[in-house]
Amino acid sequence: MRRKTRKCWNTRTLLSEANTDCITILRHIITLRGTLLILTVRRIIMKRSNVSVLKRLPVGSRATATAKPVPPDVKVDTRAFLKCRPEYTSLSLNLTQRPHPIEWVDVLPLLQKVSVLKGRMKPSDVSQFLVELSKLHPDKMPLLLSDQRFIMLLRYSVEHLRIFSELQLLEVLQSFVWLKIPASHTVLDVFEAELRRQANQLTLHQLLLAADLWRCIGRQVPQYLQCLYDSVHLHVGQVGVPELVQLLYIIGEGRHCPKDLIHPVEQLLMHHLSQLHPEEVGTVCLGLFKSQTSLSEGAVTRIVDRALSFVTEMGDFAMVNVLKYLRFSYLYHRTWLEAMAQEVPRRTHRMGVQGLMHVTLTCSALHYRNDSILTSVAESIPSLVPHCRSKDSSKLLWAFGTLGFIPIQSPGFYPSLIDALRKRKAEFQRYPEHLLTGLLGLAFVSQFPEDLVTLALSPEFVYLSLRNSQLELKKDMFTLDGAVALELPQWKGPRLSGELREEVAEMLWKFAKSDVCLKPEVLEAESALQDLLGGDKFVCKRMILPHTRSIDLEVHVDSNGQPVPVNLLCPKQSATMIPSPQSLEKINSGVPVTDKLLAQLIKGKNTTDSLASSVKVTPTPCQRLPPDEGGRLFDSVLDLTNDMIETLTKPIRRDSTHQASVCQGFKGPIKIAVQISSRNHYCAQSQQLLGLHAMKRRHLKIAGYRVVELSHLEWSSMLRKSRAEKLGYLHCKIYDNL
Q1: 417: buried, middle or exposed (CB in 10 Å: 19+, 13-18, 0-12)?
Q2: Rounded to whole angstroms, what are the CA distances from 314 to 149, 372, 601?
Q3: Chain center to CA of 43
Q4: What is the pTM of this model?
Q5: Bridge partners of 563?
Q6: How far apart (Å, rounded) are the C-alpha atoms in residues 565 and 544?
Q7: What per-residue confidence (pLDDT) applies to 669?
Q8: What is the distance between the alpha carbons of residues 725 and 591, in angstroms, rounded to a whole number?
Q9: Which H or E run contains 555?
Q10: What is d(CA 682, CA 327) in angstroms, rounded to the nearest whole number?
Q11: Alpha carbons 170 and 195: distance in angstroms, whole number
C-alpha cells in the first residue's frame, strides 16, 4: 500500500508541475499499453490508404506500386566526417560502434528485476536497466518492445524524468537509439519537453550530442533545435572546428538555419576554413545546402577554393556536396568546374546514380556543358537503371535536355531512362512533378514517348497535379502541351483544356509585362524598330508562343520587303485603328537612307564625297564575336560591311528580279520574330542554346517565323551608340534575314 501511495504521489507531483501539453502526454504515457494498439491501428489505416491509392492507379501500375523501394546502388556514409577528429566522440554517437549484443536469455533477469522493484526503482536503476537492455541483439528488439515489463520500465523513466541528472538523461536517450524506439513514440514527446526545459543547464557539447541523438532516432525536433541555436550565441567562444562542423550537420538535417545565426556561422567558417579536412568541407556544404542557407559570394568562393585545394583527396560524397551548394548558390566557379571535367569521368563507375544525378543537375543549373562529363555519365546510366528512382530519372533527363545533349551522342541513354520512368509510374501519384520534369527534358531534344505524354496530359493526371494549385506544375504542363501541338501534328491523344491554357498564358503574360517587357534592352529595341519601320503599328511585343514562357518583337513584311501592320496581334490594343496617310507613307518607305544618315553612321565623314571614298568597307560580313573577345562590336567607328552598305543604299522599291529572288517560295507576309537574347539563354562561354530556348527557336520555325536574334553581346554594346547606329544595325539584321 505504501509503495502504491508513493507512486501516486510522485505522479501527482509531476502532473501538477507540468503544463497542459505535458499532462496530455503523460496520460498517454501512463497508458502505454494502449500505445501498441494505437500503432497497430495506424498501420491498418496506412495499409487501407495504400489500397485506396492502388484503386486509383491504372491497372498496369498496381504491381509497381507495391514494389519495394529502389535499393541504393552505392552505400554512402553520410557521417564519414566523424572519423576526421577524436573530438567528435563527445558531440555525436558513433553508429558503427554498437554495444556488444546480448541474447534474450541475458535480458530476462533484468526484466524480472523491473517487475520486482517497480516503484522502488531509483533514477540510476531506470537508466542502468535501459542501457543494459539496449544491448539486446537487434533481431530480438521487437520482442522486447512488446514486453509488458519493458513498457512498465518506460513508464518509470517518465516518472523519474525530472530527477535524472544531465548524464542519465543523455544515457537514456542514447539507449532509445539502440532500442529502436519509433520516432513517433509518445515517450519521446516527454523527453523532448524535458530537454528543452533543461537546455539552459546543458553545455554546448551536451546540446550538440542530444541533437545528434534525436537525429539518430529519426525524430524532427525543431523546438529543441531552436534552443540549441539560441545557446550558440552564448557559447561562440567555445565553437571550434568540430563544434562548427557538427552544428552545420545538425542544421542541415533540421532543414533550417535561423537568420540571426547565418552571420555568426559565416564568420566562424571563414575563421576555421583553413583547418577543415576534405570530408568536413563536404559536410559543411551539405548542411548549408539542405538548410537553404545563403552565404556571401566571397564566402562561398573561399569554401570552394578550399575544396579545390584537395579535390583529389575528397570522397565522392563530399565532392558531390560541394557541387550541390554551388548549384544552390548559382556560383560559376570556373576552376572547380574544370577540375570536375577531370574528376567526374574517372569516378563515374563508382559514384552511383544519385551522385551522377547531382553532378549533371549542377552542370545544368550553372549552364556548364562539358562533353567529357556528360558522355561519361550517359555511358554509365543504362547499367544503373534498376537503382533509379523517378526523381533520379527525371532530373537526369532534365539536365541533359537543358544542356542540349542529343540522343545520337549516346544511343542508350535516353531509352534507358524512359524505360526507368515507365517502371516507376506509381511514384507519379505522389510526385507528379517528376514525370513532367522528365518529359520536358525530353521535349527539349525532340523526344516524345507517347505513352508517358498521354499519361501526363490525361484529365486524371492533370487533376492530380493541380490539386495544390502549383503554378510551376501548370507552367510545365502548358509547355509540354504546346510542344506536343507543334512537334506532333498528328497527335490524337489528350490535350489540356482551352480554359487551363488561357489561364496559364494570362499568368505568364502578366509576369512578362512586369518584368522582361520593362528591361531597358527590350524597350530600346522596340522603340528603335518602331522608328525603323514607321511606327508602333509595325512592331508587336508579345508572347508569340506562350508555352515557351518568353516574349518576342514580332514584325511582318510583305513580298516587297515593306512593313505590314501587326498591331492587331498585340495584347490589349485596339483592333480598329486605321493608319493615317502619313503612316501609310512611312509604310511604303520605312526609314529613308539618306547621305545624312550614312554620314552619322560613319562618324561625320564628308557626305558630298562619293561613297567609295567616305565609307570604310571591310570584306567580311557582320558577325557576333565570341564571348572571350568581349563583344565590343562597335567600339569607335562603325565598320560598314559590303552587305550593310548594299542594304542601306539599295532603293526600297527594288527591281522585279530582286523581288523575285527575295520572295520566291513565300506566300503572304513574312513573319519575323526578333529575339533579344540574354547570356542566360546559352551554355556558359558557348554558342550552344539551352534546352528551353533551343526548343523555342525550333518551334518558331515550325510556326512559320524567321528568327532574328539581337544577341546580348551585340545589342548590349549598341545600347551605348547613337540612334542612327542602332537603326543601321537593326536594318541590317532585319533585311539581311530576307
Answers
A1: buried
A2: 49, 20, 58
A3: 33
A4: 0.78
A5: 557
A6: 16
A7: 87
A8: 13
A9: strand 552-557
A10: 17
A11: 9
